[in-house]
Amino acid sequence: MTIRWPIMVLPVQNPGFNMAPRTLAAPPSVSGKAQVVATDAGIWKVTFGQVVVNNRQRVLAWRAIDNLLEGRLGKILVPFCRAYQPVPTNDGLLEAVPHSDDTPFSDGTEYQGVAMSVRLSGAVAARAVSASITADGGTIEPGQHFSIGERLYRVRTIVYHTTTTATITFRPPLREAAGAGAEMDFDDPVCRMRLASDDAMDLELALRRFGTPTVNFVEDL
User: Fold this and answer.
1) Which value, to the nearest 10 degrees, does the dihedral of the CA atoms of residues 4, 7, 9, 12 take?
2) What is the pTM of this model?
3) Which of 53, 132, 137, 139 has the most other CB atoms within 10 Å of its CB?
């Protein structure tokens, strides 16, 4: 099971989620013209700038994640900021809750709230860049994000046919084929990533107690 960045324990002050295009350019000609070719894939790059590490719990959590990842070897689910999503809820609706007697399910999981339900209307092949969807609970706009499984995507265009059905285009191309009814998570999108370098989680603590480190990730393809 892929570990997940504990955003409530290690909050991030300056997050950056960007898609890095893959281009190749030949040297310019005498006239100054240059040809640039690119794939349509791109790759996600994430920067968690100035992570708040200011108490015992946070220092130990940072060190534990660093130890689990073992540099670029391990994988981690990096959650996307919800602020500009269709339903940027902060009312606790998306937080996991236990049974009425405060116990979880037998596997340790709890009930998970949903602010918006979005699903594929039909099967979509790997590397597709468009899909028909059904959506309930919010209005999707270009520039917003969703994940299918552990893969992150950004909406390019959307055309609503009714209040609950639409056609969207997105990037990067679908990493893996998805079946009809597959969930598109706009509430809590994530991306499966690796550390950008083996020393990305090196930690320096002022007075051995406080730190605001920055960590960089790249998509795990």
Assistant:
1) 130
2) 0.84
3) 53
- For residue 72, what are its two tokens? 């670029």
Retrieve residue 206's tokens: 């002022």
pLDDT tens digits, one per residue of 82-107: 888 887 655 555 555 566 677 766 65
Q: What is the CA radius of gyration of the chain?
A: 20
Torsion angles phi and psi, residue 64, rounded to 5: -65, -45
C-alpha span between 166 and 118 (Å, rounded): 10
Which residues contact residue 176 at a Cβ distance below 8 angstroms, ignoring those fewer than 6 apart? 126, 148, 149, 151
What gap in Å lies between CA 168 and CA 29, rounded to an integer?
39
The pair of three-digit structure tokens given for residue 207, joined into one six-digit string: 């007075």
The model's pLDDT over 164-219, given as tens digits with 9 standing for 90+, comes to: 999 999 999 999 999 999 999 999 999 999 999 999 999 999 988 899 999 999 99
